[in-house]
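Researcher: Here's the sequence for the chain we discussed earlier.
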Amino acid sequence: MQLSGYSASKGLKAGLVGGLVGGVVLGIFALVGSMALGQEVPYVTIARNMGFGDFAVAGGWILHFIVSLVAGGVFVAVTGVVKRLTLTTARKSLWVGALAGVAVWIVVDVPVTGLWAIADLTNPNFAVGTFILHIVYGIVTALVAVVILRRNVSTLTKA
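Model: Thanks. This is the structure I predict for it:
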């Protein structure tokens, strides 16, 4: 089924859920990668450098999920307004999600890491890894959102 469109508010709601799921996926990969390299998860490093002290682990993960929610919500809300980016099919969600992941990496990850974890950003393996993980985040967020938006449309048409 192809969606014809949706409002920014419906996109926001679907994006919040999609962003949370995308954040979980990104977080799992970041955790596994950090463990494999014997490093601290980047969110924890950032929280520690922001002054969270003993609460850096919890604070880092909470900050990660807040950013995931906000980025997902804003991303899918924008796709409801910019018709060229509207998530109409799963296939279109792949490329629009990938673009969103790149945007989140550029607008959020690079500046935050540059301020609070510069050593991570100067490591090419880390930079490329986070770039790829943010593309995965965007794709997962978009796919979850399009499934939610489709369900809302089919629920409305059945009623």
